[in-house]
User: Which sequence fits this backbone?
């Protein structure tokens, strides 16, 4: 049997038993640790085919839901910088998602425990790889969200990440997008995030925010400003007249959020603005 069957489920006949397991037709090996059933010569058995570390075609009766051209969620079990992430598809062998299929910046690579929606493919040497689903796959498979989700909390897993924003698929099967202004940090690929729906679009997709509501975020933003003041000897070169991009570049919040936080701190008599700067009053 050629290696083009790698990554698929096949029905093969048991030719003979040996000390380490069974020889199936086409000289495919089925080791004892790959089956929990006693098999007889001449019996047909459903197996998943893959290559072991030596490149030999082997079989397992552990049948994964993820195969060639079949997608499913796979948990990340190991991450190796410069190489990629290994995922568990339900067999003993862990499958590599290569660096070519991961974000350019390793700080948003998945971590152990994150999950990726993948199918199987092969490299130039015929070895199995796990391939994350493309945007087109999610467009075909996900559902349209109902209008009544507006302002509701929602959870989703990141399947595409970029400086512009993060695309997620929710637990209910909806597609969502988190614009970079609606997150304080860029989520990892495969990370489960919790947010709220800020728009249900006409095409059934969602716009999602990871930021708290204004009345809740004001306190967090004020704390961040105080921390920056403490780090900078009691002053920062920002006021409510500062450039919005400069504010976002330093605090990763909008100018409106920055002004709300400044207002809160001034009302509490913790800061004052003078000479184009904001100062701690106890400094």
Assistant:
């Amino acid at each position: 049997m050629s290696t083009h069957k790698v990554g698929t489920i096949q029905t093969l006949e048991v030719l003979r038993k040996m000390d380490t397991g069974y020889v199936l037709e086409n000289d495919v090996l089925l080791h004892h640790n790959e089956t929990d059933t006693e098999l007889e010569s001449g019996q047909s058995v459903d197996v998943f085919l893959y290559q072991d570390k030596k490149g030999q075609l082997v079989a397992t009766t552990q049948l994964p839901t993820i195969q060639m051209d079949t997608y499913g969620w796979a948990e990340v079990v190991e991450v190796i910088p410069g190489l990629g992430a290994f995922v568990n598809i339900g067999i003993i062998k862990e499958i590599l998602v290569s660096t070519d299929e991961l974000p350019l910046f390793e700080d948003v690579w998945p971590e152990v425990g994150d999950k990726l929606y993948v199918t199987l493919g092969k490299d130039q040497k015929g070895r199995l790889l796990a391939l994350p689903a493309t945007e087109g796959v999610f467009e075909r498979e996900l559902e349209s969200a109902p209008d009544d989700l507006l302002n509701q909390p929602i959870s989703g897993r990141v399947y595409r990440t970029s400086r512009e924003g993060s695309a997620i698929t929710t637990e209910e099967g909806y597609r969502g997008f988190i614009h970079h202004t609606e997150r304080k940090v860029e989520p990892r690929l495969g990370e489960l995030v919790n947010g709220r729906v800020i728009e249900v679009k006409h095409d059934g997709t969602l716009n999602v925010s990871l930021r708290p509501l204004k009345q809740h975020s004001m306190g967090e933003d004020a704390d961040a400003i105080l921390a920056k003041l403490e780090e900078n000897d009691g002053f920062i070169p920002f006021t409510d007249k500062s450039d919005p991009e400069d504010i976002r570049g330093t605090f990763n919040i909008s100018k409106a959020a920055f002004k709300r936080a400044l207002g809160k701190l001034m009302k509490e008599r913790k800061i004052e603005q003078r000479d184009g700067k904001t100062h701690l009053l106890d400094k």
The mean pLDDT is 91. Residues 214-280 form a domain with the Arc Repressor Mutant, subunit A fold (CATH 1.10.10.10). The first strand starts at residue 9 and ends at 18. Residues 218 and 257 are 7 Å apart (CA to CA).
